[in-house]
Amino acid sequence: MIEDTALVRARGLVKRFGDFEAVRGIDVEVRRGEAFGFLGPNGAGKSSTMRMIACVSPRSAGELRVLGEDPDRHGPRIRARLGVVPQQDNLDNELTVRQNLHVYGRYFGLPRARVRAKAEELLEFAQLTDRADDEVEPLSGGMKRRLTIARSLVNDPELLLLDEPTTGLDPQARHLLWDRLFRLKQSGVTLLVTTHYMDEAEQLCDRLVVMDGGRVVAEGSPAELIRSHATREVLELRFAPGGQDAAVPLARELADRVEVLPDRLLLYTGDGEAALAAVQRRGVQPVATLVRRSTLEDVFLHLTGRSLVD
């Protein structure tokens, strides 16, 4: 690979907090123009990694280059070229929507005229033009999130870091935000996203790493990971409490792999409907059944032995 195609390159990256190692020697490469994701549960090391890339938390060991430079030596210069969307919105609630953009733009030393013009462009992008003169406090969660993202774009960043961008949003707000992020990617902005939502990773990411316990346990495109670590379909069998134990041996005969969860059995198979018919012929009577395609959550369950929402 040509050197300058990577906006982020980490080798053996480590982050320690006292005796606790939050990030345990990971290798990551983020290419220009792609949407790259960190997928994993809370505590996997995603946010600690993002903070090192954002040049606000020094690495404990390993190599890290962001935009071709060393964060330890050139942190301010790198930060001027980044956009950062933190996990929690940190907007100024006493200012209007437009004023939040103006004030943030001035932090970068941009001329007032340029900041004003950029603010109007971003208000339209975030679909907040009609709320521009409203204070932030009464806005919905989705509107605040879009404003936070708009604010992160004031300096025309080359790399946009988004830490859990849609946590707490309703489905409609999530889809609107996904659309805005897809448009950004289409315009050439490189996205680096952390999430514990598997559908979000599948929607947004060209490539991703699955993290668990501070380590990278798999890497690839969503489709590649599903193809490598799961079957085409999954049959879910739900039972009354305590009723699934007897069905486990049969399930293992009918599927490539079986995961036993507290409330259901997951049968991994190339043909879910055929597996369901076989279950019914054997006289097994679950309370409910579902045939679905495999997802990144199934990948994570296979790699770590637990669900993403644990």
Automatic annotation (TrEMBL):
Its main location: membrane. One of its GO terms (biological process) is response to antibiotic. Pfam families: ABC_tran. It is found in: Cell membrane. GO terms for molecular function: ATP binding; ATP hydrolysis activity. Residues 8-238 form the ABC transporter domain. InterPro entries: AAA+_ATPase, ABC_transporter-like_ATP-bd, ABC_transporter-like_CS, ABC_transporter_ATP-binding, P-loop_NTPase. It is a peripheral membrane protein. Keywords: Antibiotic resistance, ATP-binding, Cell membrane, Membrane, Nucleotide-binding, Translocase, Transport. GO terms for cellular component: plasma membrane. SMART domains: AAA. PANTHER family: ABC TRANSPORTER ATP-BINDING PROTEIN (PTHR42711), ABC TRANSPORTER ATP-BINDING PROTEIN NATA (PTHR42711:SF5). Belongs to the ABC transporter superfamily. This is Lipooligosaccharide transport system ATP-binding protein.
